[in-house]
Amino acid sequence: MSAFSTEDFRAALGQFTTGVTIVTTVDDEGRKVGLTANSFNSVSLAPPLVLWSLSRTSGSLPAMSASRRYAINVLAADQRVLAERFARKGIDRFEGVSWRPGLSGAPLIDGAVASFECDNRSQHEAGDHIIFVGEVTHCRRRVGAVPLVFHGGRFFSGLAL
């Protein structure tokens, strides 16, 4: 087997089309925290478990690690600007964003195609990321909504289902 570079690995991973999410929580001081993530997967139906991962270098890691609850908001095709906003550093990511508190208090992004409110069940160190496993306590979806997808380092509108 031939060796490959980090860039080769990243480019190959980019060929897998994913959905786009914004993961949100409220920290111990009541501040809203949110970030764009496309590393979201289902784990189990019984109990209802999902996972997502976050870089160890993320500025949001301390708040997410300490949080008892968070929400995963699956973005709609018309929410590309939000995905880009929540990926930026050094700004108030929630400024001008329409949201409401979920049952757990975590922010739910208005217009998302689905949302999953989770208890922060476990965290696992894996390479340069932390894998978060959440137990879903509540979920909702918008039937027929068009999702935002990510492929090859770019955002695309999904197909209406």
UniProtKB/TrEMBL annotation:
Family annotation (InterPro entries): Flavin_Rdtase-like_dom, NADH-dep_flavin_reductase, Split_barrel_FMN-bd
One function term, GO molecular function aspect: FMN binding
The keyword Secreted appears for this protein: no
SUPFAM superfamilies found in the cross-reference section: FMN-binding split barrel (SSF50475)
Keywords of this entry: Oxidoreductase
A Pfam family hit: Flavin_Reduct
Chain ranges of the Flavin reductase like domain: 13-157
Recorded family membership: Belongs to the non-flavoprotein flavin reductase family.
Protein name: Flavin reductase
Source organism per UniProt: Aquabacterium soli
